[in-house]
Amino acid sequence: MLENSFRIIRGIGEKTEKSLWDLGIRSWDDIEMKNCPNGISNNLWRIIRENIYEYKKLLRRNDYRTLNETIPKDLTWRAIPNYQGRIAYLDIETTGLSYNNSQITTIAVFDGKTVNTFVDGINLRKFRRFIGQFPTIATFYGKCFDIPFIRNYLGIEMPQIHFDVCFLLKKIGFSGGLKAIEKQFRFSRGILSKLDGYHAVLLWNQYRKTRDERYLETLLAYNAEDVLNLEYLLNFAYNEISMKENLPFNPLPTSERTVNNPFKAHKNIVREILSMNKAYGCYY
């Protein structure tokens, strides 16, 4: 966690951080409580103490914006334990991949206890205020898609600390999309397992055309599945990266998810959408 990290200080590299740990300086409190050890210059010790003091102030004030701007991007993941219970696991569905020619249809946000959904034409405008209460967000490939799309379509800046599960899992050898990775963990989406982003577009189009709520509920169920496993995967990635890099960090819990999908995927609607995809010969 951040309080065990020294590389976040400019000028402190991996070798110096490891030297501090080997000397028994394992946390920010050790810096404040102990004298400068042999092997560390007084000037470097002073710089570390001054920076640690500032970082502690930022954490106390929950100034996540400044932390986000200050912490090196490749080390942001070390802050995951500091924000347990305050992470918004987020995913969007859209009518296409183009920021300029497509729209956001639904947004799912899992706060660790509840799945909150925002639907275009119903309550999408409430998303700005809702997401603003979270200091951190977690997505799967959201740095490249979800967040730029939100910024372009809704005009919302996202200054939160961002944990992208996709890139964290790549650090430990996992590749592919979220559904492919979930299969490696034996996570099941049930009847939604055959649906993909293209089917989500079809569900939205059918809902808009017929106003049949079953299409919307099935779409929301699909969207919810994209966030419900992110907490487990984020914590798993944190633990594995810590072990891989031999860091003195305590592991995070990785229990199976305890929150069920609050939306119903209607079997007949899923079958219909899959048959439409087959008839059109289109694959997303």
CATH fold call of the largest domain? Nucleotidyltransferase, domain 5
Structural domain count: 2
CATH class of the largest domain: Alpha Beta
At the fourth level of CATH, the homologous superfamily of the largest domain is Ribonuclease H-like superfamily/Ribonuclease H
State the helical fraction: 40-55%
Whole-number mean pLDDT: 94
Coarse shape: elongated
Would you write up a description of this structure?
The chain has helices at 14-22, 28-33, 42-60, 64-70, 127-131, 146-154, 165-170, 178-184, 197-210, 213-228, 230-244, 267-280; strands at residues 87-94, 104-110, 115-119, 136-139, 161-164. α9 (197-210) packs antiparallel against α10. The protein folds into 2 domains: 2-61, DNA polymerase, domain 1 (Orthogonal Bundle), CATH 1.10.150; 81-280, Ribonuclease H-like superfamily/Ribonuclease H (Nucleotidyltransferase, domain 5). Helices cover 45% and strands 10% of the residues. The two termini are 39 Å apart. The protein is an alpha/beta fold. The chain has a 5-stranded mixed beta sheet. It is built from 12 helices and 5 strands.
